[in-house]
Amino acid sequence: MSSVRARLILCALALAGLSGCGAGNDFSDLQAYMDEVRARPKGSIEPLPKFLPYEAFTYGAAALRSPFQPPIKIELAKQQKGSKDIRPDETRIKQFLEGFNIEAFEMVGTLSNTGGTFALVRGAGGVHRVKVGDYLGRNHGRIVGIDEAKVEVIEIVPDGEGGWLERPRSLALKERS
C-alpha cells in the first residue's frame, strides 16, 4: 500500500508543478517582437556584396636567391670580372634537372659500368643518374667530374656588368644518417 501512496504523492506534485506553467498568459515579449517584425518595410533585403574577379598571379622571383639562405658577401675590390668570351649556350635544349636550384640536390651514390661512372643525385622528386657533361641547376651548371665522394659542377653566372663568370661548385656525398 505504501507504493500506491507514493504514486499518489508523486502525481500530486507533478500536477502542482504543471499548474504553474499555464497560469500566466503573459505573451507581451512575443507580441512586441512580432509587432517589430511586422513594422519592418517590405523588400528591405540587403543586396549581395560585389565580388572582385580573380586575378592570376605569376611568381617572378623563382630565379633569385632564396630568402632563407644567408647572402654571400662580396667585396667589390676582390670581385672577379666576367669575360665576354664565357657565356652560356642559349640555343641548346635544356635538360630536366636544369629547372631546379642546385641546392635542392644531394649526391647519394655512384654507379660504374662499361659505359662509365655515373652519380646518383636526389632532388626534383626522385633519384636521378647523371654523368659528366650533363647539366644540373638553374645557373647553366655542367658536370665536369664525378668521383666516389663528390660531383664537381661548373656554373656560368652573370657578373652583374654584362659579362659571365665560371663558378665551381660541388655536391658532396651525403652519408646515411
Question: Would you give an account of this structure?
Answer:
- Strands 1-2-3 form a three-stranded antiparallel beta sheet, with no helix packed on it. It has a three-stranded antiparallel beta sheet with strand order 4-5-6, with no helix packed on it.
- The model has no long low-confidence stretch (mean pLDDT 82).
- The chain has two helices and six strands, in the order H-H-E-E-E-E-E-E.
- Strand 4 and strand 5 (150-158) form a beta hairpin.
- It starts with a helix and ends in a 5-residue tail after the last strand.
- The protein has helices spanning 2-19, 28-39, and strands spanning 106-113, 116-123, 126-130, 142-146, 150-158, 164-172.
- With 177 residues, it is of the alpha+beta class.
- Helices cover 17% and strands 25% of the residues.
- Keywords: Lipoprotein, Signal.
- This is Type 4a pilus biogenesis lipoprotein PilP.
- Residues 1-23 form the signal peptide.
Count every beta strand, where a strand is a DSSP E run of 2 or more residues.
6
Oligomer: single chain
Helix content: 10-25%
Q: What fraction strand?
A: 15-25%
| Separate helix tally | 2
Cα Rg? 40 Å
| Structural class label | alpha+beta
Any idea what the shape is?
elongated
Main sheet attributes: strand count, strand direction, barrel closure: 3 strands, antiparallel
Distance between the termini: 84 Å
Order of strands, main sheet, comes to 1-2-3
Low confidence ranges: none
Mean pLDDT rating: 82
Q: What is the chain-wise order of helices and strands?
A: HHEEEEEE
InterPro entries: PilP (IPR007446)
Pfam families: PilP
Protein name: Type 4a pilus biogenesis lipoprotein PilP
Signal peptide: 1-23
